[in-house]
Amino acid sequence: MEQQIIDPLQNLNLEQQQQKTTEQKSLSPPPPQSLNEVEKMIGYDFKNKELLKEAFTDASYKTEDGVSYERLEYLGDSVLNHLIAKLHYVLYKSMAPGELTRLRAANVDTEALARAALKYDLHKYLRHRKPLLDVQIQEFMEGILEYPSHSYGMIDPPKVLADILESLIGAIFLDTNSSMDDTWKVVERLLQPLITPETLMQHPVAKFHEACQKSGLKPYANDMWNKTGEIEIYINDEVIGRGCYKLKKIIAVNRAAHDAYKNQFGNKDGGIGA
Amino acid sequence: MEQQIIDPLQNLNLEQQQQKTTEQKSLSPPPPQSLNEVEKMIGYDFKNKELLKEAFTDASYKTEDGVSYERLEYLGDSVLNHLIAKLHYVLYKSMAPGELTRLRAANVDTEALARAALKYDLHKYLRHRKPLLDVQIQEFMEGILEYPSHSYGMIDPPKVLADILESLIGAIFLDTNSSMDDTWKVVERLLQPLITPETLMQHPVAKFHEACQKSGLKPYANDMWNKTGEIEIYINDEVIGRGCYKLKKIIAVNRAAHDAYKNQFGNKDGGIGA
Prior knowledge:
Two copies of one chain form a homodimer. By secondary structure, chain A is an alpha+beta fold. Helix content of chain A is 49%, strand content 8%.
């Protein structure tokens, strides 16, 4: 067994360990639904319908003009980050920058955005040729049943779902003639319910680590991820937590820490997934 | 000698290796110059002078109301990132997101912002109790003489200089009633000259690595940073580059790669520092 003191657990080598999911090209992309429905759903009518179309075109779709949502996503990301930064700056007048950063991250990370996109069925309107996407989305939908608000790294959101939301935000921003206020009116609805300081949870590794420090416990990890996709957490030669996820090590680690916390310290504080 | 194949050089363990510079408290802070001068210099008159004052108050100064520029800096960072993202989105209509990201990063990284702050002498107006700051600024001023536009990681900009610029941007944004357009008018001037796709350089490690790959060379590094602050780069048992910087390993590595590139491939392409 390889023993590692988990202080912090993040010391496990997590880089470059995401296994690539193969995405074969399918010949017949799913027929996109009418984008009018998106406009109704999000409560915003585009003046320039081309922007809306661009926002819902994945690079895999290969249009004649080579357009895809990637540039809109880049722009939308900066719009969204600013909108949430400003909201929090105004709402939480005495919050320190570190806390503001953590709160914003939880609201705009891949999982939060993927959840919002799914809630509005935005993926159904995406023009793409990614045959595995439906399976990934299905898995994500099953995953979030266990974690009603945010899993904090315990499930694996398909990045494309978050991308759609960001590209849509970029498109709205341009369509409103770069009006942050008008964009916010739409975005605020899309992101409900926002995570607040009251509902913000600690990431499982930080939470477990902190509890161990308080109790003077020295946990260590048995890293079998390369072989089995599994991480075990030990205290005093006894397994107290296990986590498994073959595609991304960080998720296996988070699950192991969450499991270990639950077993070692109970879950009476309404913690993650409680 | 510890041999390491540098493929990429970034494999050198660069985390947590920045030595903390000790900052003793001085009893008498330098008397701040009048903030009117800042307004004249940047061409913007604050309606709310308190915002301006807040933007120029470091946490070390310990005001009675506990105000410092940190929250304004957080806000200003999101404003600046969005402004540059939008500018590039509009200017470079066919640029891929990866390139947009790289171009933005070069324009808003600590060094770029520190250079702008220094150009307008903004540090002279900062209320702080950091007796070592003047020395650090002096070193930075000497460093940039060698690299007229951007050193791409070869010199060590004092973070506080970049912070002042971001907090100033946050203050202007609030003072203009959250007008991105009005804020941009000031920011655009402050950041001149912006780095463009034509003037954007590769980071030294990437540049060296790429040239080695093209030439089929296999460089490796001798990492003596922990002992002497030095990194040596070898090809076939021969030292071809050296870099030294005791406070931050990444800077020693960048300097070594730059030196190795110069010695191995010449510097005829108008490269960094040419």
